[in-house]
Amino acid sequence: MLERLELEAFLVLAEELHFGRTAERLHVTTGRISQTIKKLERQVGAPLFERTSRAVRLTELGQRLRADLRPAYEQIGTGLEQAIIAARGITGTLKVGFSALWSGDLVVTAADLFRVRYPDCEVHIQEVQLGDPLGPLRAGELDLQLTEFPIDEPDITAGPVIFSEPRALMVPDRHPLARRETVSLEDLADVILLPMTGNIPDYWLDYHYPQRTPAGRPIPHGPPITYWQEVLSHIHVGKGVSVVAARGARYYARPGVAFVPFSDAPPIEYGLLWRKTGENTRIRAFIQIIHEIRRSVPREDEVRRHKSRMAGRRPPRPDEGRRPTS
Predict the structure, then answer these.
(1) More confident call, 84 vs 228
(2) 135 φ, ψ to 5°?
(3) How many of the other CB atoms lie within 10 Å of CB of 224?
(4) Compositional bias (Basic residues) at which positions (predicted)?
(5) CB 12 within 8 A of CB 26
């Protein structure tokens, strides 16, 4: 019979794939998590995780166990949350923000389900400008926000990553890079990168608009831009290039601008933010719905791995292996 800590430690570690973050989420020591997982593996009779000095991965048995345990655990959590909600009631107004349009799609979908479950609570949704990504949240204009990571601020709670997107480079369609299948981070040394400006943390800017390539070559920066639509106009007239989630090709497509996938850039991660002093039952209920929706959609990396396995079982089609343009 599983103890509660064994169940939670296994499922959280299966999500985080990091002992330190798992321990932090469960408010125990890293050693306690390690001991608990080892105990569970002895009980099962086989390893559930592959551990190296650089990474933690689920074994095939661990993946099956996660698939079997997760629904039951979520059902228990949902039942408890519903009981708490019924006892306290969820009323009032919840204000939710988003930055990227694809984040907005998820927020709107979650808000529709939230309104069905909690008809006595209103949900207001608004877009957050990248030039001031934390201002509305800090000012109390928003209760919750889905935005690009990293965010590391003392007054704001950054939840787990909800989803991630591969990166692409937006370039003028007449630029030589526009004819490439992919680009590299090293290519940024040969173009002018157009960064955002405003009330933005320096570490966020350094992550999304780096000053140097991985090899240490300086990356020329053009004039900073305040609003996203200006970026598209600057690229259209040949003032420079900019980095975007690859999905942006479907949302920001316009004449004169091409989207070229990166071959080596880390993905852009998106997560939920809320004020550390502002957490309440409305926020927790909305976060739960966000997680439910995301778990019902296959993760893109899992889809890619599945396609790769299937491709190995049959001869490739003539058009297979080409990188998508969006």
Answers:
(1) 228
(2) -60, -55
(3) 14
(4) 305-315
(5) yes
Distance CA 84, CA 260 (A): 48
**Rounded distance between C-alpha atoms, residue 245 and residue 243, angstroms:** 7
What gap in Å lies between CA 285 and CA 84, rounded to an integer?
10
In DSSP terms, 172 is beta-bridged to 257
CATH code of residue 24: 1.10.10.10
* CB-CB neighbours of 246 under 10 Å: 23
Residue 221: CB atoms within 10 Å: 16
User: Is 182 domain-assigned?
Assistant: yes
Here the tokens at position 144 are 């919750």
Residues 38, 117: Cα–Cα separation, whole Å: 40
Q: What is the pLDDT of residues 222-239, one digit of tens each?
A: 988 988 889 999 999 999
* Tens of pLDDT, residues 285-304: 999 999 999 887 654 444 44
Domain count, the chain: 3
What is the full DSSP assignment across 200-248?
--HHHHHHHS-SB-TT--B--B---BSSHHHHHHHHHTTS-BEEEETTH
